[in-house]
Amino acid sequence: MRRLDPGTTAPPSALTDTSWIKPGKVFRCELTTAAGNGNEQFPTATHNVTLPFARNIGGPMDYTICYGQSRDKTTNAHQMAMAAVYYQPLNFLFWYDKPSKYNNPANWPGLPWFNAVPVTWDESRTLAGSIGEYVAVARRAGSTWYLGAMTNETSRALSLPLSFLGGGTYTATVHADGTPGANPYQTPVVVGTRTVTRDDTLDVAMAGGRPGGRAEAELTARSADVHHPRPLRG
Q1: 218 - beta bridge partners?
Q2: Which residue range(s) make up the domain with 58?
Q3: How many independent structural domains does the chain possess?
Q4: Is 11 within a domain?
Q5: Beta bridge partners of 144
Q6: DSSP H or E stretch at residue 77
């Protein structure tokens, strides 16, 4: 989605031909762009953990997250983690579903996370990563940190130092994969909490496997000293 500078005229072929864009042209109101091969194709977990090192370094990326979609090749926790790992100011909770599917929040423990996760950030940190294998990213909005971790089809465990946190005590709310389901999208999301400080390390166990068992985790950390009037935010 691009808005051109005043006075710029794009020819009808602009959707497929970008030769009319002159060097130095600034798109001041750009929100996001596609070219990420997202959930229109329902790609593999390996593809998803390659994007942060490739397409997403070139700017905002429209992936189209699909939470609870039966065609996903990854788990719901994997889809949740994308909201923190990818920089995508235009985010989707569901792409091919209807809001009525989520009328009973008890069936969808990831909804508070999507309700709270920002789309722009004050600070971002890459905590761990290897192209096409795994990635962990922490992003801050205000006093709250949001941390997403994703793996490919291989099980692995990451120990992530929390030294990026500020002083004081934080409550980490952890969403992770439960017992693997018959299909990846049927793997439940389990939620737990723990108290952490910047001196702690957060251990993240992410299960993989072919063909059905991709298990990924995403985590958030919240300062216990800050008042949050809104409902629990992931």
Answers
A1: 148, 175
A2: 29-223
A3: 1
A4: no
A5: 141, 222
A6: helix 76-85
